[in-house]
């Protein structure tokens, strides 16, 4: 049955008769060679026709060629042979013959000419591959093929789809193909399609219903409008969840950026303007690790977590020993000195590494999104960053509350003289606290390398936000930082759709200023005698 | 000039025995023969804009070295005078003054952002300098002392949108940009163009501005996604500047927006910006420029080879503003040869009509409005960080200082040839001095 469908689909798409399909060419005059030859032309329109011809040919290698062409791996060597590049990293690439599949060893990239495609061809190729894949033995392929066909069905395919849907073994494939067919019907103003799409949240389905709603037949148009209205409530709910997710994810970035500062500024009282640059160093450490471990971006990223912490912590110690310890109790001078350090670090990176941004690769398992339903999917990289922020927060809480270091830090900050009288080495505690806060900034940098540019300016973009969060949350209170970061993130994202990004930022700032007027010590003010100092 | 002669004399000749003999008109000639021609370079080497501008400084230095190897100009060597305005707009004006008053440079190559050009403008006009500005900009300006070798909106934005409409079949446009003068003016021109020339409805245009360095694009990308669900082919026209692009494209990829669904055409993303991004998920997104590194001509390959040798970096990329400096530098050199002097007024007269080869196999000519002719190319991003050219204008397009699509602005022309010699001549009332409508529109924008 599958075999039959394969031919049926290909032939129907092509308008071909099966008679032409069954022959196999004599060896020596491979018809595939002629097919590939037609691809190597300048005009994109001619290439499109060549692709149609390949789809129409019954060649078993067709799918492989189409996929290679889509991936830019179908290339022509200087000797005129068509080859498929297996791996295009480095200067020399392993290739195989496109016609025979024979491995040809490695070729230099200078010997190879890629067969270029544009967006229109890319679309055509994806649809063509999806049609071929509909009857693939691999269920994953059938599923992605069904996904792809939503909104891509044309008249010829619509007829063939009916038996395929009946035959489909996989529920998901059956449902998706049913939707694909309904979308085609609805777009053509057929009642059956509109009815089938009622309640669907998929964007393509709504596109089809929108078109049906502006169609000629008033009955169908009314039904389409009703179908659109029926999901309105559900869509709003999904959008609400999405906005909340955006807010929490922005919030967790703010928390990550601010939490190191909550230690150095909040607990120690040092205004460290170079905090952003410590984050930048964390991000550059990630880049460096990926350079050291080429081909393993995921492993490099995981290893960057301790490495980024260490690098930033060491630089933090150098800053503390070199500058801050001499300026104790002189906040204005500390502010100016650390601002100077921040400029020095930025220019150092510009001079030593490059003023240009560095590419940090996002590992496979962090790209894309987690699909909840047709209208809602959560981006994976931000989900990981959220988890990482909570992990860092928990670890920090543990250190501050449950370890001897935490106890000593709290003792020294509350009453330095008394702590020293009790035998605590205050200087050592200062160093360790500053190193801890700096290291956490490094961790934030590792996470930010997955969201934004890794360049000399990275830190500047976050320093203001970080201070804002710490002040809003209440200086010296880690819980305050968490709550403040998350709530500022949510407020910002709720405001953004109707106020615009620029105005949303301004509103948030004004809100914080007013709030601080009312409660100068932030959301969670420190209580007791410690607060006096 | 008198002042310059005095300084030169005091610094170089007074100590020699011939000083007294040369006092007078002869001193001028001797100073010119012996002294190098000074070329000022006004590009940020530190601060936010260093990412884009530092390569332009290197480009001009390379061009100067090449010129010196070829025997200099008028028998004199060229000497680069580099200053660092540190991405600080008022500092641009100070440094420009320093270049013109203290260093007494003969020409300046510099600036990237429009706001920095606006800061330098009064200085070069007051001190009668020459400034070659190499970056695509919003137009609505023509100064007697500035030569605009980057694209005006009609050499980039308008053809790009026409490509989207005619070749891709786009009917709905999201105009997304960074909140400053270039995107705001460009989008104003594009909106007027789409509505008046192509009858695009209000609801089919979405405009969105974000702050500099914006990094959280979740909401905006999701808005674009919903905007694209209306059942019409949709595209994003991006005037997002600099660093904000990386998180923007990342968010697009993560939310599953593919170039085949909603293509993004960018006016500020070139090879250099892409070198900081993993371009795998961006394949197929578009950019409109007047030059791409992938242009297949011998001139371009020579330029790339020279650039790689100069930087010593095998992976070094070239981009559009670099080509603009290449053209601008050669035009200035040609004008110097033509005029036989580096005198600013003589150059201003000589340069109009000068034609030099560009890197895409054609020629660039300096127009009377101080803009140049350029071909417009559209490229698709490839996974190797380069652009594949998918479309180009059949011939070069002359830069238009005043847009034809804005009220007020369409009545203005710029022509610096005598006897008109005016940067904002109003063809309606026949006088030099702009139009009130254009000023009102400008004021409305400023609010």
Automatic annotation (TrEMBL), chain A:
This is Urea ABC transporter permease subunit UrtB. It comes from Vreelandella aquamarina.
TrEMBL record, chain B:
It comes from the Bacteria. This is Urea ABC transporter substrate-binding protein. The lineage of its organism: Bacteria, Pseudomonadati, Pseudomonadota, Gammaproteobacteria, Oceanospirillales.
